[in-house]
Amino acid sequence: MARGILRTDRLILREITLADLPFLHRIFGDAECMRYYPGIKSFDETGSWFQRLAFDSYANHGFGLWAVTDRQSGTLLGDCGITLQETSAGLEPEIGYHLWRDHWGKGYAAEAASACRDYALEALGRARIVSIVRPDNIRSQRVAERVHRRRETFVKAAGSDGDKVEFHLYITKKS
Ligand SMILES: CC(C)(COP(=O)(O)OP(=O)(O)OC[C@H]1O[C@@H](n2cnc3c(N)ncnc32)[C@H](O)[C@@H]1OP(=O)(O)O)[C@@H](O)C(=O)NCCC(=O)NCCS
After folding, report:
1. Is the model's pLDDT at 175 over the cut of 90?
2. What pLDDT is attached to residue 163?
């Protein structure tokens, strides 16, 4: 049975299981959902992504991308969670979120990400938690603006050709 991690007003975040992968692949195999990523993923690539950022991360760090589910029905809506990512400050915890597009526009991503922010600062005792967003991903920026306090810019290699891309780095520090 998947381990529950976080509870919000409308959501439960729990560990992802192999049974969730077909649904999660709808997101990662969809051109609109992956518009700000280098491309859509094959089912195997989606599996590798969650192997690294969910299953291996749970084992190595105790956190990772979690399943975002409707608290009442248990319906899987997407993923949101904390992974270690390279930023201008080194390797640090980052909140990521991906919802199936039927569930956009309801505030679920900001609700899940805010719970992850509090979990990182309080339960995990981290001094700082960030979100990395492409400047053209306006929907994601609006989520990050609801979740974080400060924004900086940093440049990292991205895209299929490894070109340098400027990202927004949204930051919340423990007060
Ligand atoms: C990024 C992503 C999760 C954002 O989804 P979203 O639905 O815009 O974000 P939220 O779930 O927080 O919903 C926010 C919207 O719901 C609205 N909303 C409706 N009911 C609400 C409620 N009860 N509470 C809060 N907001 C509510 C808000 O007004 C807001 O709309 P606005 O931005 O037009 O003002 C989604 O676009 C996605 O999955 N994209 C593909 C993957 C991706 O790019 N991930 C980010 C990588 S950095």
Report:
1. no
2. 81
143 lines ligand 1 (CB under 6 A): yes
- The domains found in the chain, sorted by start residue, are 4-126 (3.40.630.30)
The alpha carbon dihedral of 57, 140, 163, 172 has a sign of negative
Identity (one letter) of the amino acid at 159? G
Dihedral sign (CA 35, 38, 43, 45): negative
DSSP character at residue 51: I
Q: Is 24 in the pocket of ligand 1 (CB under 6 A)?
A: no
Short-list 23, 15, 12, CA closest to 61:
15
Counting ligand 1 atoms within 8 A of each CB, the residue from 143, 147, 167 with the most, and so the one to mutate, is 143
Distances from the Cα of 65 to the Cαs of 52, 61, 80, in angstroms? 10, 11, 5
User: pTM value?
Assistant: 0.96
Helix segments in the chain, DSSP class H: 21-28, 43-50, 56-61, 108-118, 138-147
- Residue 1: predicted pLDDT: 61
What is the signed CA dihedral for 109, 112, 116, 119, rounded to 10 degrees? Answer: 160
For the record, the structure tokens of 163 come out as 């070109």
